[in-house]
Write a structure and sequence with these properties.
Distance between the termini: 39 Å
Order of helices and strands: EHHHHHEEEHHHHHHHHHH
Largest sheet: 4 strands, mixed
Strand order of the largest sheet: 1-3-4-2
Number of helices: 15
Number of strands: 4
Shape: globular
Bound molecules: zinc ion
């Protein structure tokens, strides 16, 4: 996962997309699409009623995205400004709707969106355009900060389509693609701003490259415009600080552990879904490897991490990561119990029994990933693009 630092996983757990959050009723649910009624019932079954109640009560909800008390919520910065978003959406919509474009391959729509988003980046001072390619896999799209590259899984974008043309893209898919591109471009903006912050500390280009793992031309451009903390830049600075801490600071290890564990859990789950009588022996060997190695080391990490995060409660990021570490630990314990019951009984029935704790864990890890400050921000800003794209007024 070395380069998967900033990935956007549209299909990891499709039930966890944001679309249904408006329909929910309770205060927790309105702020946090995680607590759907189905999920609550499901988790009550798997992690226990009391644990779920306690976690729901502890949920910080919208707290971390709200401006701290006493501070005025200001206009968005960079790609998060409505004028920038609306222009990008209007251009994207127009391209997608234009009759003359309908027979063009989907790649050309993506190329157009990349061109537009690079213009937007330049207009907000991110003076290094993002490259892109279509070689992503597993339905993940991501921004690679070392190469300054947006990687798109084209096969995923064009899945179930008769022809991979612009005309065959539904509005949902055209909007989701625009949102994805914007999400990844926001990661470029985040990275650039963190590089400017490091420059503001007097670091030279090579140090910025080494510390942030960033594309050298981007570090060199950032160096020309260092970010310092001042009354005018305090919101800009505070955001950059939170992103820095997840990219390269206090929470870097947590981010890596969640991402790697997520990948292993998803892969193992995929394997279990495809298990047959013929493949049970190899499937079982792989599950055993996972449980003996990845599970053991990751379980140890999250137990220690929960304690460490408890000691960092002055930081709002620590607060939300702590909730996730806590619930991951509860679910890891559930998985350990389920494993103890079946570990000596390799069979399809045993695989079936393990599917539930694995799939719950997979959802929890995806949610933990969405809570990384850089991801939360990119999903929020990318979400605005998707919403605007589907609004009739932009047409
Ligand atoms: Zn992302």
């Amino acid at each position: 996962m070395t380069e998967h630092d900033l990935q956007h996983k549209p299909n990891a757990t499709p039930q966890m997309t944001h679309s249904s959050s408006e329909e929910m009723t309770s205060a927790y649910q309105a702020k946090d699409p995680f607590w759907t009624p189905q999920r609550i019932i499901h988790l009550q079954g798997t992690v226990g009623n009391q644990a779920v109640q306690r976690l729901m009560q502890q949920q910080p909800g919208g707290m971390i995205s709200r401006a701290p008390v006493g501070r005025i919520q200001r206009k968005g910065i960079g790609l998060d400004q409505s004028t920038v978003i609306n222009e990008f959406v209007a251009d994207g919509c127009q391209y997608w709707e234009k009759k003359g474009n309908k027979d063009k391959p989907v790649e050309e729509y993506i190329a157009y969106l990349m061109k537009q988003v690079n213009q937007a980046l330049e207009a907000i001072g991110v003076t290094v355009p993002c490259k892109y390619d279509f070689t992503g896999s597993d339905g993940t799209h991501f921004f690679m900060k070392r190469d300054w590259l947006v990687r798109i899984d084209l096969a995923y974008v064009t899945r179930d389509m008769d022809t991979a043309t612009v005309g065959a893209l539904t509005e949902d898919r055209a909007a989701s693609l625009a949102s994805t591109i914007y999400h990844e471009a926001r990661h470029a903006e985040q990275t650039f701003r963190v590089a400017r912050m490091l420059a503001g500390e007097g670091k030279d280009v090579q140090t910025i490259v080494a510390e942030l793992g960033v594309y050298e031309p981007a570090a060199a451009e950032a160096k020309k415009n260092p970010l310092a903390n001042s009354p005018e830049t305090d919101q800009e600075f505070a955001q950059a600080k939170a992103w820095r801490n997840i990219l390269t600071g206090d929470y870097e290890q947590y981010r890596i552990e969640v991402s790697v564990y997520d990948t292993f859990v998803s892969d193992t789950l995929e394997l279990m879904r495809g298990a047959t009588e013929e493949t049970i022996t190899t499937t079982w060997t792989k599950i055993t490897d996972f449980m003996d190695y990845h599970f053991v080391s990751t379980d140890r990490f999250f137990k220690q991490e929960e304690k460490r995060l408890e000691g960092m409660q002055g930081d709002p990021t620590a607060n939300i990561l702590l909730q996730d570490a806590h619930i991951i630990n509860i679910q890891n314990d559930q998985l350990a119990v389920a494993w103890a019951e079946v570990k000596d009984k390799p069979s399809l029935a045993s695989v079936q029994m393990l599917m539930e704790p694995f799939s719950t864990l997979s959802s929890l890890l995806f949610r933990a990933y969405e809570h990384f400050p850089n991801e939360k921000d990119a999903f929020r800003v990318g979400g605005k693009v998707e919403e605007a794209f589907k609004q009739p007024t932009t047409k």
